[in-house]
Specification:
By secondary structure, this protein is an alpha/beta fold. It has eleven helices and ten strands. The strands form two sheets. It has a five-stranded mixed β-sheet with strand order 3-2-1-4-5, with helices on both faces. The protein binds 5'-O-[(R)-(carboxyoxy)(hydroxy)phosphoryl]adenosine and zinc ion. Residues 17, 145-147, 172, 175-176, 187-190, 193, 275-277, 279-280, 304-305 line the site of 5'-O-[(R)-(carboxyoxy)(hydroxy)phosphoryl]adenosine (KG4).
Amino acid sequence: MNMAEPVTRILAIETSCDETAAAVVESGTRILSNIIASQTDLHAQYGGVFPEIASRKHIEVIHAVVAQAMGQAYLGYDDLDCIAVTKGPGLVGSLLVGVNVAKGLALARNKPLLGVNHIEGHIYSVWLTEAAPEITFPVLTLVVSGGHTELYLMRDHLDYEHLGGTIDDAAGEAFDKVGRLLDLPYPGGPAIDSAAREGRPTAFNFPRALMDSVYDFSFSGLKTAVLREVERYDAGRPPVADLAASFQAAVVDVLVEKAARAAEEYGVTAVHVVGGVSANSALREAMHERIPLPVRFPPPVLSTDNAAMIAAAAHHHFLRGARSGLDLEVSPSLQLR
Ligand code: KG4
Ligand code: ZN
């Protein structure tokens, strides 16, 4: 953080998918509290997020989560500069819960309200790490989550050049779908990550799509290739560990190769990898191995959805004078371009 910048204290709320989260962050870098109530166990029985159940669960726990975030930060509402909330992208019913609670608090406590793009939140998760003081632009950020696979060149704060993204499934979506194919528990990402530790990444030669095209990604052919292999074992159990390791290796190869190429082409000072899939251990290892620059990841707890990252992004918008009105609407298909 630039020392001349004023200190901010921001309460953020995040309910875009299946985590109910609230956090208080100081000056976009210092976490004072970070509460995450996960619904994963609730949705696991359906093998994916059940939107109607997600929004109902958010309503049940959001007030307790916010109260806990304020309590752990040892702050009162008077100490806050702003209330930030994820406005999209995400599930409409889930987003509505967070946005309405944030509006109610902003109105009742007479605080400015700020709607934040969830993808931007993921990007700012790296500023919540010890590396924050070392970050200098330009930076290449790879966002790999359940809904997104995007490469951005950042020349400054809040300045995003979209270099490419997925043309079909997101990386996390591919992990989740392949997890289901392999009969692994939901969510597929962490389950494949651990199953792959027992398998051989070279056991199956799965496709690395669009390797020669510039910065776009495609993972749906890979998912189909895994399905074809699984179908060959209709009588017996497929070699899950080898399939998981080989699938994961294909995803990792593509992500690492494209990030390495973009880092070189744009002469960045560092590569940041954020979003749920950035928790993947093979991806972390391969990025460090292949890229001769600092490669920064948020700690796993800040890789997946949380509200601290929303507060971190909000800090920069707040300092630039951005405010949302009480008529703030949710944007389920919001993009960052
Ligand atoms: O960022 P996130 O929590 O939510 C979205 O914004 O989508 O990302 C969730 C995604 C899920 O697809 C999940 O399977 C994946 O991140 N994920 C992982 C790992 N941990 C979570 N994928 C691969 N390896 C992991 N260790
Ligand atoms: Zn996310």
